[in-house]
Design a protein that fits this description.
With 202 residues, this protein is mainly alpha-helical. It folds into two domains: 67 residues, Fe,Mn superoxide dismutase (SOD) domain (Helix Hairpins, Orthogonal Bundle), CATH 1.10.287.990; 101 residues, Iron/manganese superoxide dismutase, C-terminal domain (minor pseudopilin epsh fold, 3-Layer(bab) Sandwich), CATH 3.55.40. It has nine helices and three strands; from the N terminus they run H-H-H-H-H-H-E-E-E-H-H-H. It has a three-stranded antiparallel beta sheet, sandwiched between helices. Strand 1 and strand 2 form a beta hairpin. Helix 1 packs antiparallel against helix 4 and helix 5 crosses helix 6. It is globular, with a radius of gyration of 17 Å.
Length: 202
């Protein structure tokens, strides 16, 4: 069954003023849609792979024929990463994590401020296009950065939070000020969804 573009879980302008409506429309309707269409095109002659969920597909790239592996890696990664990205943001959410997630953040980083500082460093240090992630291993958290549309899931890891640092995610509003975009992005993080993922519900 072909992969489909999921609708945004909120209005295009819901994340303003932190992320603007025009960026959300182009990012979701153009960029994410292109990843889905290109992924489906790559898989059209491989019905066995078409049956896999997007997470199972990118987690098992070694099983994808070499002739389409790069296309599946890039476009499947783009589809998975963006689907998760939309879910990990929300208007008017909690300003900080609570409960077991907050405890894990304190244990791993020393607190939310330190997490933000290390995450910002990883995101700013990503040359060109890519993502910054918070990765969970057991009860331990760490920060990683990946290029292009790669994702720690491709290496068998579990992500609980990720931020898109491709220029298309922020350039209309922030131009080349990636740091300003990242600072604003924390205002729309969906800590409830991050906590769900941390607890193993997702």
């Amino acid at each position: 069954m072909p992969h489909t573009l999921p609708p945004l879980p909120y209005a295009y302008n819901a994340l303003e003023p932190h992320i603007d409506e025009q960026t959300m429309r182009i990012h979701h309707d153009k960029h994410h849609d292109a990843y889905v269409n290109n992924l489906n095109a790559a898989l059209k002659d491989h019905p066995d792979l078409d049956k896999l969920s997007i997470e199972d597909l990118i987690a098992n790239l070694s099983k994808v024929p070499e002739s389409i592996r790069t296309a599946v890696r890039n476009n499947g990664g783009g589809h998975y990463n963006h689907t998760l990205f939309w879910e990990l943001m929300t208007p008017g959410g909690d300003k900080e994590p609570t409960g077991p997630l907050a405890s894990a953040i304190s244990s791993a980083f020393g607190g939310l401020a330190q997490l933000k500082e290390q995450f910002q460093k990883a995101a700013m240090g990503r040359f060109g296009s890519g993502w910054a992630w918070v990765v969970q291993s057991g009860s331990t958290l760490s920060i990683e950065s990946t290029p292009n549309q790669d994702c720690p899931v491709m290496d068998g890891k579990k992500v609980i939070l990720g931020c898109d640092v491709w220029e298309h995610a922020y350039y209309l509003k922030y131009q080349n000020k990636r740091a300003d975009y990242l600072t604003a992005w924390w205002n729309v993080v969906n800590w409830s969804k991050v906590a769900e993922r941390f607890s193993g519900a997702a």
